[in-house]
Design a protein that fits this description.
Thymidylate_kinase, binds 2'-deoxyguanosine-5'-monophosphate
């Protein structure tokens, strides 16, 4: 479910920015594609910003980083809430950018939050609670890849969650979230095994369509 946020403007020519989200398991090419889309839109003259979660630059993000790199232990519920707080601390800026007409490309968000934490055995509904009220994306580009394929990619296994069995559960949990979503047309599931260029073409097409179609629509909050 989602709640609308009104836009404080009277002009009929007003256009808000689009919230384009990339989600998926580790090593599925999200960051590569999010960056390529960012560069493409910038070159084409769109007002666009790139955002990555977790944002490891803030004090909360630094604790998350210490946890992910196995330098700090934290209770599962405590780290879940820190990931969520890391999103909340960015909300005012993200909202201002979108309402000001800037499109934001976001690499991971609350769907990762719920999938990774619920995959550890935490209750899925409990996991969703701390993210209620966050801005809702206009599209979720889900990069889908088998764990066998992602394991073959460089760097897999360096951080806490990069373990084959765990990633398998995370992938299933993402699928469950899509299934449970009231608006599953929000999700665009792409076969991440395709070439970088082929994926980029599809992502550009999806994104231009979203930018055009959401520009007159109100922003929404998850609830
Ligand atoms: P990345 O920087 O995209 O590689 O993400 C770092 C790791 O953190 C990755 O294994 C996914 C995981 N992650 C991202 N967001 C969340 C979250 O909100 N909660 C939990 N538990 N894990 C997350």
């Amino acid at each position: 479910m989602s709640k609308e946020i009104s836009i404080s403007t009277n002009t009929s020519t007003y256009k808000r920015g689009a919230f384009i989200l990339f989600e998926g398991c580790d090593r599925t090419g999200k960051s590569t594609q999010a960056n390529k889309l960012f560069e493409y839109l910038q070159i084409k003259g769109h007002a666009v910003k790139f955002w990555k979660f977790p944002d490891r630059t803030t004090p909360i993000g630094q604790t998350i980083n210490a946890y992910l790199t196995n330098n700090q232990e934290l209770d599962d519920k405590a780290i879940h809430l820190l990931f969520s707080a890391n999103r909340w601390e960015c909300m005012p800026k993200m909202k201002n950018l979108l309402l000001g007409g800037t499109t934001i490309i976001v690499d991971r968000y609350a769907y990762s939050g719920v999938s990774y934490s619920a995959s550890k055995g935490l209750d899925l509904n409990w996991c969703r609670c701390s993210d209620i009220g966050l801005l809702r994306p206009d599209v979720i580009i889900f990069m889908d890849l088998s764990t066998e394929e992602s394991e073959k990619r460089g760097g897999f296994g360096e951080e806490r969650y990069e373990k084959k069995d765990f990633q398998e559960i995370v992938r299933k949990t993402f699928a469950l979230l899509k299934e449970k979503d009231d608006d599953d047309s929000l999700w665009k599931v792409l076969d991440a095994k395709q070439s970088v260029e082929r994926l980029h073409e599809q992502i550009v097409e999806i994104s231009l369509d979203i930018i055009e179609n959401c520009s007159q629509l109100p922003l929404k909050e998850d609830n």
